[in-house]
Specification:
By secondary structure, the chain is α+β, with helices and mostly antiparallel strands. It folds into two domains: 113 residues, no CATH class; 52 residues. It is 28% helix and 19% strand. The chain has five helices and three strands. Strands 1-2-3 form a three-stranded antiparallel beta sheet, with helices on one face.
Length: 166
């Protein structure tokens, strides 16, 4: 994995609130076999809890393919990889998380998602309006404009995109 060419591009994060079961202490509280608190009737106690979501895409196709997943499901956990004899799944999850983690840390601290390259706002080759159209298409840096394929250029709603790429 190369730092110069990321495998995925983080599009953004959001937070929602969902009713999820509450972990309990089996010694002090009535809990089920998985350790979740139970009420008097034996049902799990549910509470609203924050859930962080990430939207990302492969770096080669930011316009066509986007995936939105729970952040907690993306964390690599070696203990869950019992059937993964050669470690391929763990390597994949670790590589993906290494790409997402800096952006997630920035999101949690209230900062902008870090860019890999020169921001469109710093590029004198586009107007602020053109930069906004590019950002809407998921393109955030000058290097991402440079790396667009011909098929992706056709999907950006700007005239003379091939000249802009040059």
């Amino acid at each position: 994995m190369s730092e110069a060419q990321p495998l995925i591009r983080v599009i953004g994060f959001k937070q929602s609130y969902e009713k999820l079961p509450v972990k309990g202490d089996p010694v002090k509280e009535k809990c089920d076999i998985k350790g979740y608190k139970l009420d008097a009737s034996g049902r799990r106690i549910l509470e609203l809890q924050p859930e962080d979501w990430v939207t990302y895409s492969p770096s080669h196709s930011p316009l066509n393919t986007r995936t939105t997943e729970r952040v907690r499901h993306l964390l690599p956990d070696p203990s869950l990889m019992g059937e993964d004899q050669d470690g391929e799944k763990l390597r994949f999850m670790t590589a993906r998380w290494n790409q997402i983690e800096p952006a997630y840390a920035a999101f949690k601290s209230g900062q902008e998602i870090p860019l890999n390259g020169t921001a469109l706002a710093a590029w004198s080759g586009v107007t602020p309006e053109q930069a906004e159209v590019l950002r809407t298409a998921g393109i955030r840096t000058v290097e991402e404009v440079r790396d667009l394929t011909d098929g992706q250029l056709d999907r950006v709603r700007l005239p003379n995109m091939r000249d802009l790429r040059k």
